[in-house]
Amino acid sequence: xxxxxxxxxxxxxxRAHALYTALVEQARSPAFYRxxxxxxxxxxRFDMIVLHCFLVLRRLRAAGAEGTALGQAxxxxxxxxxxxxxxxxxxxxxxxxxRVKAMTQAFMGRVAAYEKAMGEGTAALAATVARNVYRVExxxxxxxxxxxxxxxxxxxxxxxxxxxxxxxxxxxDVPAPTKP
Length: 180
Fold this sequence. Notes:
Layout: H1 2-27, H2 30-34, H3 42-61, H4 65-88, H5 93-120, H6 122-132, H7 143-161, H8 164-168
Helix pairs in contact: 1-3, 1-4, 3-4, 3-5, 3-7, 4-5, 5-6, 6-7
């Protein structure tokens, strides 16, 4: 019985790694930075990972208890990766915990903002993207903010129509970002 639970956790962790790897790969698509003007910085890349993680967690939540548990594992993998990346960038042991805590709070705030904006439509999501990804007020948003909002809705529709088992196995069938 204990061995069975351990194997189930190990399998979930492996699936979470595969899913996190797939969402990071999508978030690092050069088109976001080249065509949509997402800042190619540590913060810009973090924001794109958060945005894609939000979409994946939203899809997993719809898959029930198994999806929710996998979503928690993806979250844990993501922040273990953030911890490791901070250390590789030379952040000292004392600073890593504080920065990961700040990143976790930023993640939670962005997820709540994206969730709310998704229910309010494209203009609200574009404004949220402008504030969180481009770090500008909505009235100063670049054209990429609207295109990115449209992309998020397209991904949400695509992931919602994709078989939950394939998503849980790390296969994200999402569209490529388009140019403004």
